[in-house]
Specification:
With 297 residues, this protein is an alpha/beta fold. It has 10 helices and 11 strands. The chain is globular and about 75 Å long. It comes from Rhizobium anhuiense.
Length: 297
């Protein structure tokens, strides 16, 4: 008899392409993944993967098993979601995914307030820009900035929130230096693989051809505060920081609309409903801040 847990490990390696990545996704150690794969191969009497320098590649037998494994995973997720949706207790785990900036600079006080109101709900905040699959119950609620509503998956239920605007910001000290003629061209601080948006070039300050690159939101904002250059930020981040100012000659730019997203039966769970209704009210209060209308230089 095949153990469903072995199938989960098989799927993780097949999807991630490496044992290490699968172990990180499943939150187990490397040896556990290898042991589970070996156990499945022994029960099926076939080798599932071929190890190559580029990673783990499915064998012909592995390819045949993959389709059935995906079907098993889908059925398991559907069952778990349906049972979860029947849960009307205000107790248990609630997983919320959102970008690090939204978590750190806007919503953490609201998460704290919700946790205080409902001490029996165990909250897990998945602060990441990486996509999370709600269908597979990787999270219960996703807070996302959506530019085009038509791109939302039809199987997700959404509560529409306020529109989110951004602007170009610079450290106030660096702005003073530029106005005093001490800096002619200013670097653009690039986050990850982003470039300079066209609307970011519309300001009065010329942009240097030499950029400054960072890989995470915390480093990005720290570099801006240190006067290394200028960059685009959501208004709820830039306007709330006393060390920063909008770059002269630039306007506001709409990034998209905030949505609270849930999947199928999950949204019927009482703790999910309580959270989405609570946060929807809080987001409406933040509408001026999110639109860049709550502060002026």
């Amino acid at each position: 008899m095949i153990d469903w847990d072995d199938i989960r490990y098989f799927l993780a390696v097949a999807r991630e392409g490496s044992v290490r990545a699968a172990a990180e996704r499943l939150e187990v150690n490397h040896s556990t993944v290898l042991r589970r794969i070996a156990q499945l191969e022994e029960r099926l009497g076939a080798q599932m993967f071929e190890k190559r320098p580029s990673g783990y590649r499915l064998t012909n037998a592995g390819e045949e098993i993959l389709e059935f494994a995906e079907q098993m995973a889908a059925s398991s997720n559907q069952l778990a979601t349906r049972v979860f949706g029947r849960d009307q207790s205000v107790r248990g785990l609630l997983r919320v995914t959102l970008s690090p900036m939204l978590a750190t600079h806007l919503l953490m006080p609201d998460f704290a307030a919700f946790a205080a109101l409902h001490p029996d709900i165990e909250m897990e905040i998945l602060s990441s820009d990486e996509p999370v699959n709600l269908t597979n119950r990787e999270a219960d609620v996703a807070i996302r900035v959506v530019y085009d509503r038509s791109t939302l998956p039809p199987n997700l239920h959404g509560l529409k929130g306020p529109e989110l605007f951004g602007a170009v910001y610079i450290a106030r000290e660096l702005l003073a230096d530029w106005r005093a003629g001490m800096a002619e061209r200013i670097r653009w601080i690039v986050k990850k693989f982003d470039g300079i948006p066209d609307w970011g070039r519309e300001g009065d300050i010329p942009i240097s051809e030499i950029s400054f690159k960072t890989i995470d939101a915390g480093t990005h904002i720290a570099a801006l505060r240190q006067g290394i250059g200028m960059t685009a930020l959501p208004c709820f981040v830039g306007d709330a920081d006393p060390l920063l100012a909008k770059v002269p000659g630039t306007g506001l730019h709409m990034h998209g609309t905030l949505w609270l997203l849930t999947y199928g039966e999950t949204r019927k769970t009482k703790r999910v409903r309580l959270f989405t209704e609570f946060l929807s009210r809080r987001l409406s209060v933040y509408a001026p801040l999110l639109a860049g209308l709550a502060a002026s230089d």
